[in-house]
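Colleagues,

For the teaching module next term, I've prepared a clean inverse folding example: a structure given as tokens, and then the sequence designed for it. I'd like students to try predicting residues themselves before seeing the answer, so please don't circulate the second half yet.
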């Protein structure tokens, strides 16, 4: 009998710069290993949807290249099988290149190419690293370039996040706000402008306004995402389609459309689609816009919940955890505070994306790795924070109607309704006197015989005053 031998623990791979030994267990290759040496920067790894988008592109390219006879059919089949395995969740720990890496994303792109090549080799019964049979460059990457794959991957990943997650989350947030608008429709409260007394409003109308605001943001985000459906894939290195057959571009984009059920089309001008980051800036800008209204919503709710004894306390946000390590019985608006922090981060990420987008030169933007991470991270944290905020905060809000009404009845801005009857200046004098003496506005009007009791009752009818005009 031939004695069993222990497989080697390392393998040797070669690239255009020389040789490297790699652990036999890893599926990435020599170019990934070089990136690990060169970029030990943040410990941040590519987000899952970005990996999936890159792998999906490779699957589509392998299928089309195999059908067109550009790579051997059995090699194309093995690459497709490897891609499907990764899309189902395997080998995710093999995508290891730091977010801060070589410009344009070449290091991450080669990481994807090498993992697919080595798994395809295993499927074909070959050892990892035997790239003569399946090459990361010549087979997995046939007809492709970092310069068209990476912007396409960002588009696909962002579209997935927007349409699968964020739009659904915004629908649920709007529905939660609309439900509160209905629940609170009969509750009068003081309006406030400049954080000072204003004329009465209805608590339900305030929540209805929030619902309308976020419904509009949903429309803007959906509109901004539509530009991502135009793909420059097939443009190859600079947009000219070098080393691709004539049918490739149309077919590979159609294949991706079939996989994703998205209305994907080849970009009218591949060179423009590859070098301009404007679609990502447009989407990021819509997320920034959403974030600034998220901040306002969180701040409004925190103010309305302030107290319980020394603040407004018009509503109660759900107390989800103890609020102090030293003050017993304290509960804080932690979900609103969390939403604020997320929205601040999104605004910062948008600034980084904008700076990256203007930093491209000629036919390529080399800052795409950071654009990819920051845009997808923004989508991730906005989606998760708004989902949690709707479920664990908005849905559990309860009002304090008596407190709200007392503010509505006590606001000095009630004198605004007197303007048509006694004039602005005299109304201002009434407000000043009420503040100085503590007397209600109604009492002062009657004491001075400025209006009849019937007129006062009609003009200072809070229900009518707070009714929104159609």
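(Answer key — instructors only)
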């Amino acid at each position: 009998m031939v004695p069993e031998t222990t497989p080697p623990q390392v393998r040797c791979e070669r690239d255009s710069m020389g040789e490297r030994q790699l652990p036999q267990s890893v599926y990435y290759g020599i170019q990934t290993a070089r990136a690990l040496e060169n970029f030990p920067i943040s410990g941040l790894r590519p987000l899952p949807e970005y990996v999936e988008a890159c792998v999906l592109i490779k699957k589509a390219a392998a299928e089309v290249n195999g059908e067109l006879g550009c790579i051997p059919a059995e090699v194309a089949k093995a690459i497709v099988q490897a891609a499907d395995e990764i899309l189902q969740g395997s080998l995710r720990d093999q995508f290891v290149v730091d977010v801060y890496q070589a410009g344009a994303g070449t290091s991450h792109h080669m990481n994807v190419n090498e993992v697919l090549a080595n798994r395809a080799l295993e499927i074909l019964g070959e050892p990892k690293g035997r790239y003569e049979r399946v090459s990361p460059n010549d087979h997995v990457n046939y007809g492709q370039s970092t310069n068209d794959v990476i912007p396409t991957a960002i588009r696909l990943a962002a579209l997935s996040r927007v349409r699968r997650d964020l739009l659904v989350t915004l629908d649920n947030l709007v529905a939660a706000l609309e439900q509160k608008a209905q629940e609170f429709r009969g509750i009068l409260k003081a309006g406030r402008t400049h954080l000072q007394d204003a004329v009465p409003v209805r608590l339900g109308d305030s929540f209805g306004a929030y619902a309308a605001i976020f419904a509009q943001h949903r429309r803007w985000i959906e509109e901004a995402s539509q530009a991502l459906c135009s793909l420059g894939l097939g443009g190859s290195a600079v947009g000219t389609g070098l080393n691709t057959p004539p049918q490739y571009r149309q077919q590979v984009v159609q294949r991706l459309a079939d996989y994703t059920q998205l209305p994907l089309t080849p970009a009218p001008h591949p060179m423009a689609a590859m070098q301009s980051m404007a679609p990502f800036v447009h989407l990021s800008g819509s997320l920034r816009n959403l974030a600034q209204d998220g901040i306002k919503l969180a701040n409004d709710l925190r103010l309305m919940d302030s107290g319980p004894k020394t603040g407004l306390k018009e509503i109660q946000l759900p107390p989800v955890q103890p609020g102090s390590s030293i003050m017993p019985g304290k509960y804080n608006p932690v979900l609103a505070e969390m939403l604020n922090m997320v929205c601040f981060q999104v605004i910062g990420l948008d600034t980084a994306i904008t700076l990256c987008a203007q930093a491209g030169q000629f036919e390529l933007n080399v800052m795409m790795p950071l654009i990819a991470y920051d845009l997808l991270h923004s989508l991730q944290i906005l989606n998760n924070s708004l989902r949690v905020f709707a479920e664990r905060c908005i849905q559990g809000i309860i009002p304090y109607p008596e407190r709200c009404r007392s503010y509505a009845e006590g606001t000095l801005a009630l004198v605004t309704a007197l303007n048509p009857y006694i004039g602005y200046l005299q109304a201002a004098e009434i407000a000043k006197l009420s503040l100085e003496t503590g007397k209600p506005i109604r009492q002062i009007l009657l004491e001075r015989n400025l209006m009849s009791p019937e007129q006062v009752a009609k003009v200072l009818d809070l229900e009518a005053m707070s009714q929104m005009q159609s």
